[in-house]
Amino acid sequence: MNKITIFTDGSARGNPGPGGYGVVLLAGKHRKELSEGYRMTTNNRMELLAVIRGLQALKTNQYPVEIYTDSRYVCDAVTKGWLNNWIQKGFKDKKNPDLWMMLHPMLKTFKPSFHWVKGHAGHPLNERCDQLATEAADSGKLGIDTVFEQVQKAEKDKLL
Fold first, then answer.
1. Active-site residue, 36 included
2. Do 42 and 55 touch, CB atoms closer than 8 A?
3. 29 Cβ neighbours under 8 A, 6+ residues apart
4. Residues 55-91: pLDDT tens digits?
5. Are the C-beta atoms of 112 and 66 separated by less than 8 Å?
6. Domains in the chain: ranges and CATH
7. Mean of pLDDT values over 152-159
C-alpha cells in the first residue's frame, strides 16, 4: 500500500431536504464504504461531510491521501485557498462554518490532494458514492443534522 484514495459524494432531496453522503475508501487491497442519511440538510453539507467522514475513518497519516469529489464547492475551497480566507474573515456571509472547521485540522493532519471528477459521468467509484448517498437519503433511517436545523430555525425565527 503506497497511498489511500477516498471517493466522496453528497446528496439532498429538495436541497434542503433529506440527504446523505457516500464514501469509498481504497488502501491497497482494502476497500471500505461509508454512508449515512439525515432528515434535513443540503447537498453542500453532505459533500463536505463525506470528505470529513472519509478522513475520520483513516487510522494513520503515514500514507499520501487523494480525495476525489464531484463537488467544486469542496474542491475549490481547499485547492484555491478559499477556506483559509473564510477562516481569516470569520466565515462572514459563508455557509457551513461548523463543517469547514471540522475539516480544517484534518487537512493539516492528512495533507490530502483534492481532485475534481465530473459527477454522473460514468466514473464507477463516483457513481457508487452517489448510490450510497442517495440510498442513505432515501433510507428512512435518518439522523439529525443538528447545526443545520438550528440555523434554519434561527433564520425562520428572524422572519417572524
1. no
2. no
3. none
4. 999 999 999 999 999 999 999 999 999 999 999 999 9
5. yes
6. 4-159 (3.30.420.10)
7. 88
